[in-house]
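User: Modeling request: complex.
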Amino acid sequence: MQLREHQCGTLMDLGWMLGLAVLLTGIAGHAPAAEPRTGSRAPYLHRISLYDETGTVIAPGEEGAKPFSPAKTCGKCHDTASIGGGWHFNAADATTHAAGRPGEPWIYTDLQTGTQIPLSYRAWPGAWRPAQLGLSEWDFVQAFGAFTPGGGVGEKHASNPADPKARWKISGNLEIDCLACHDSAPTHDQAEWSKQIENQNFKWAPTAVAGLGAVKGEARKLPEDFDPEFASTPASPEQAPPALTYDKSRFDANDRVVLSLTRRGSAGLCYACHTARLVGPGAPESWFAPKDVHLAMAGLSCVDCHANGLDHATVRGDEEDPLAAAYPAAANFSCKGCHYGVDGPAVGAKAPPASRRGRYGAPYPRHIGLPTLHLEKMTCTACHSGPLPGARAMMVQTSMAHRLGIAEEERRDDLPPFLAEPVFVRQADGRIAPHRALWPAFWGARKEGKVQPLTPAALATLPAALGTQGIKSAQWQPLRAEQIIKGLSALAAEKKIDGQAVYIGGGRMFSLDPSGKLTGQADRAAQPYTWPLAHEVRPAAQALGAGGCADCHRANGPFFFGEVAAAGPASLGPAPVVAMHQLEALSAPLQNLWGLSFVFRPFFKLAGFAASGLIAAVLLLYGFFGLARLTRLFGEK
Amino acid sequence: MFWFRSLATVGVVGAVALGAWVRARRRAGRAKTPARRLSLWEKLVLAATGGSFVLLAATGFFSTLVLGQPMHGLHLMVHTALGGVFFAGLAALTLTWAEACRINDEDWRPSRRSRGARVAGRFTLGEKLFFWAFVFWGLIAILTMLCAMEPLLGTHGQLLLYKAHRASTLLMVMGGIVFGCAKV
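Assistant: Request completed. Predicted assembly structure:
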């Protein structure tokens, strides 16, 4: 009996333990799985099974095989939840991530309405939140998803279930496509990403980009009430859901594929979204365009400096990067951290031995003849980054703003949005740094002195008033003053907007006076949005100042007196220009006088050395007299 | 910057105290400096050198000691421009008074004429020593900045030149204060 009780107790204990084990297993199922690691620097061959969004292994020969899900496939071994909090995906998680210094915004551009307005989910001064422009997560992904690696609002869109336009159920989520940055296979086709997003084939996009299969059909053409779970024979072929045919040659006998994955992605992968090219007058030919010295000469790749761990909290490279608080090692990746060394002596101290210098033996800056004040008042990039300043800042196009990387027959150099570089701006930390600048242009409502942009929905009828309906890139012309007048009149006549109708553009706010005449005035909303420019980095021999002080310090020198045109999609007379010294918060007469003084600097120095020579000669002469007297004195004794 | 500010404060206070002490001692001994008349040229040289030196010290030390930052903007521009006046003035001053400030045997013997003060010629020994010290440190101050304008030294060297410039000018200021306090 006792034995029975004991056995019973043991069984009950076992039951509790099993229950606890099940509970713990359940909890562990929600916690990040431990990531298997090889501990080796040798690349790990990813010969793996692919999984669809339901977590089912993909059999390529099976009819109706679903597209592979990076989250389910890569998530088998990697903590995708942690990765999803990385810099490229966390913009909308404003509560958990610091905005950091301003970066390149998303620029909502509409040729029909003459709009170029900076947007960001991050709290960057001057950038509007997408919701302020009436853009839901669905709209955002439609407009900008082509130049994201997926993730972010592409899969975390539950916050806005009320968006009636959203078709997530049909399109699927735009998951983080790990291969966008880690696929080194020559068959990787990032341009395909854009096509699939345009077709609203979100969940098919990673499969198509990796070349694992061919996707036919467009989810955007499916009716609103299409239910992918109960897809029936379509009424018309156009209404068929996207069909996926896997490339069986990519699979082995066990239905596994070999993915050419790399931890250190090439610059080419980054360029898919981070290309910039100078355009317009003075722009170099593409084959002669300057390249970053770190890539061209030092053999580095983007990720050697813009590194991250598993959490994908990518180092941005600036000295004020908030990431350094969590990761002290991040300080090694700024210009200063790499070239002076974090553990090495302070800037200006005697050059340390090579073994104690920055990473990869980065050249220790000597800065021969450079007054140390420059190192306090300017960033390293001020002298070393971007194109050399000229009389006018140049126009630049970027992947994110101008969809570079997508083949277009009508690609023009003079299409909005208009970005200028290098624009020297005094930053919040008081230092001058080169930036890119965008003058916002949009239609808005002004109420109680504040301008609020009008949403695309509110501007639905505006193109008709402007005469720009359905205009294509090839025909686009800047809006003229009479068109702006028509637009403002139409908006006022509609009486749908809350406040006075205004057009922001070219650094000014335009409105109609009581007589119907167009008047422009300064306004905070018309101020340029600027963000620091760090590439292409020029070597010391090509830095500003390598040619002497007069590189900057001369009358009307471009560093202080170069002009930036407040260019926009409207041509309302000559584009207002802003001189660099205005953005640097410096006095023009003072800088001109200072620059002028450098004309006389050689004479000044010559006279100074001559005077010094004279004084030194007299000191020596009378020193010798004293010495002679001393010898006589000793001689007499 | 902290150390220099502290050193400058102590130095200036020390210089004022030393000047007051010299002055008190001179008065107690009822020593009298020889009466002298300056020529127009001498007045001009003295005004240019002294005036520019005072303004250089004011612009330089105002930024360093009061604002707590290196000079820049208008201060730096005025300072540099005045530097030109100063080195020209100092060269002229040296040429003008070097011979008169030559230290000779007479300087070491008490003069009957000045009732205790050591005077040989136009200037007392103290004045002569001040002159040579001022010229020497002035030369250092000029050369450190002229060299910084040339592509000779890197950031470390530039900082050393800057520190040497600050130190030499501080010594000149301290000397000036001692001299001024003793003379007033």
